Amino acid sequence: MLIALIARDKTGALQIRKDTREAHLAYLQSTGVVSQAGPLIVDGDMAGSLVILDVADMAAAEDWAANDPYAKAGLFDSVELIEWKKVI
Fold first, then answer.
1. What's the rounded Cα separation, in Å, for the pair 66 and 21?
2. CA-CA distance, 9 to 70, in Å (whole number)?
3. DSSP 3-state assignment of 51?
4. What domains are there in the chain, each with its CATH number?
5. What pLDDT does residue 73 have?
6. pLDDT at 77
7. Residues whose CB falls within 8 Å of the CB of residue 84, separated by 6 or more in sequence, listed in order
8. Fewer Cβ atoms within 10 Å of its own Cβ: the N or the C terminal residue of the chain?
9. CA gap 69, 47 in Å, rounded
10. Pairing of strands 34-42, 76-83
11. Please, how many CA atoms are within 13 Å of residue 52, restricted to the half-sphere of its CB?
């Protein structure tokens, strides 16, 4: 099942994102469930994340999200997990 993770950073948290980026990218690559991923951009700066997960169920997506180094570092103001259907 495909799940879209849409996360918005806390205001003023760009340095947390920069400091944790390497660990986050390693996590994306190592877990084997990320179909697509990239930062959300606001006014030219990274301000959130969009990650498409290919997982067995919503519980697996929730577990993945909780273990993301960005989440553990307290980067996000909000995280939304939504089932997603790829069309193109």
1. 16
2. 9
3. strand
4. 2-83 (3.30.70.1060)
5. 98
6. 98
7. 2, 3, 4, 52
8. C
9. 16
10. unpaired
11. 8
pLDDT, the chain, mean: 97
The pair of three-digit structure tokens given for residue 57, joined into one six-digit string: 């169920």
* 39: its two tokens: 């930062």
Q: What is the layout of strands, in order, in the sheet containing 2-9? A: 34-42, 45-54, 2-9, 76-83
Region of 18 on the Ramachandran plot (φ > 0 left; ψ -120 to 50 alpha; else beta): alpha
Tokens 């498409």 locate to 52
- CA 83 to each of CA 10, 38, 41, 43, 45: distance values in angstroms, whole numbers, following the listed order: 24, 18, 22, 28, 27
Tokens found for residue 61: 């997506």
pLDDT band with cut points at 50, 70 and 90 for residue 31: very high
The span from the CA of 45 to the CA of 27, in Å, is 22
